[in-house]
Write a structure and sequence with these properties.
Blueprint: E1 6-8, E2 11-13, E3 17-19, H1 34-42, E4 48-54, H2 72-87, E5 92-96, H3 105-108, E6 113-114, E7 123-126, E8 129-132, E9 137-138, H4 141-160, E10 165-170, H5 175-180, H6 195-198, H7 200-213, E11 218-222, H8 236-246, E12 252-256, H9 261-270, E13 274-278, H10 290-298, E14 303-306, H11 308-311, H12 316-322
Helix pairs in contact: 1-2, 4-7, 8-9
């Protein structure tokens, strides 16, 4: 089933493999570079590519060497990337990722912001090295609405840059999940407290992006119960049940396997449009396999996303098709290094 076609919004995908978003930290001055176009074009046989996290505004930049999509220069640089992917027959969404409290003044030139003035008990990357996450500045109610609109503006810029759509990053401890969280979000206004308050930011951000570019061009990534970057979600199954009921009928939800199968199956049954499942869950030592993907397709997922397997296997679709072995990667080359980016060849027969 992985190699069968699928209709996603206004796109026909030739297969059900999605290249998952993965931070590569090789941007210069917030813009992708020439090798970024090569990197994504090499992987254009994926049914859909979702880019690395792209910050929607300056304060949303989570780490050094990460790209944005909020200035004319960034839009122009991304156009080179999307043109290359489309020339190779591919389809590509930009992942809009606001770091929220995961950030540092040395990175963005702005003090990070969050739902509440509560630091993550984790570390952040800065140009001078790794440091404990700072205490963010709590957003006022009016500022929260401004961050909602940042996603709408970034979605428009992404379409201007030639992207086929956008995915809002609501997983892995970044701003949207910080609002969903019961430990990062201690607000007493309409954006905190009850489940209805905690889901409000996520729903409004998705609605704003959908209003800006059309619901069939918008997805959202979720990691229910995920604990990356000091996230706690009380009442987790009820929280995500309420969230899915409140979201508009966008193109898809992209769910990391961070909860047990029963919870994931419940989300699949509750969601009316495409359901993308990433079987890898939180970052672990091994790439996900074709067998894991096929199992989840049999259990009702529509598309399967692969992250680490795509790093060293630009021809992953063909390797799955022919049963060819996969190449592993050196974690030391995941970020910033010139090697380990566009130098992995297709399988040599």
């Amino acid at each position: 089933m992985l190699l069968t076609s699928y209709r996603l919004g206004n796109l026909t995908l030739p297969n059900r493999l999605v290249m998952a978003p993965m931070t590569r930290a090789r941007a210069v001055d917030g813009s992708p570079v020439a090798t970024t176009a090569t990197y994504y074009a090499q992987r254009a046989t994926a049914g859909l590519i979702v880019t690395e996290g792209v910050h929607p505004n300056a304060v949303g930049q989570a780490g050094p060497f990460m790209p944005g999509v909020h200035t004319p220069e960034q839009v122009e640089a991304w156009r080179v990337v999307t043109d290359a992917v489309h020339a190779n027959g591919g389809r590509i969404f930009a992942q809009l990722m606001h770091g929220g409290r995961i950030g540092h003044v040395e990175v963005a030139g702005h003090h990070p912001v969050g739902p509440s003035a509560i630091a993550a008990r984790s570390e952040v990357f800065t140009p001078s090295g790794v440091t404990p996450a700072p205490v963010p500045r709590a957003l006022s109610t009016s500022e929260v609405r401004g961050e909602v609109q940042a996603f709408a503006g970034a979605a428009r810029h992404a379409v201007d840059a030639g992207f086929d759509g956008v995915e809002l990053h609501g997983a892995n401890g970044y701003l949207i999940q910080q609002f969903l969280s019961s430990n990062a979000n201690q607000r007493t206004d309409a954006y905190g407290g009850s489940i209805g308050g905690r889901i409000r930011f996520a729903v409004e951000a998705v609605e704003a992006a959908a209003d800006a570019i059309g619901a069939d061009r918008v997805g959202v990534r979720l990691s229910p119960g995920g604990e990356v970057q000091d996230i706690v979600e009380s009442e987790m199954p009820a929280l995500y049940d309420a969230l899915l009921k409140a979201l508009p009928d966008i193109a898809y939800i992209h769910v990391l396997a961070t909860a047990d199968d029963e919870v994931l199956m419940g989300l699949r049954k509750a969601w009316p449009t495409a359901f993308i499942l990433n079987p890898g869950g939180q970052i672990g030592p091994h790439e996900s396999t074709r067998e894991q993907g096929e199992r989840w397709l049999a259990n009702g997922a529509d598309l399967i996303s692969y992250g680490r397997a795509y790093l060293a296997n630009p021809d992953l679709v063909e390797r799955f098709r022919l049963g060819l072995p996969l190449v592993g990667t050196d974690r030391e080359t995941w970020f910033q290094t010139p090697q380990g980016y566009v130098d992995y060849p297709s399988y040599q027969h």
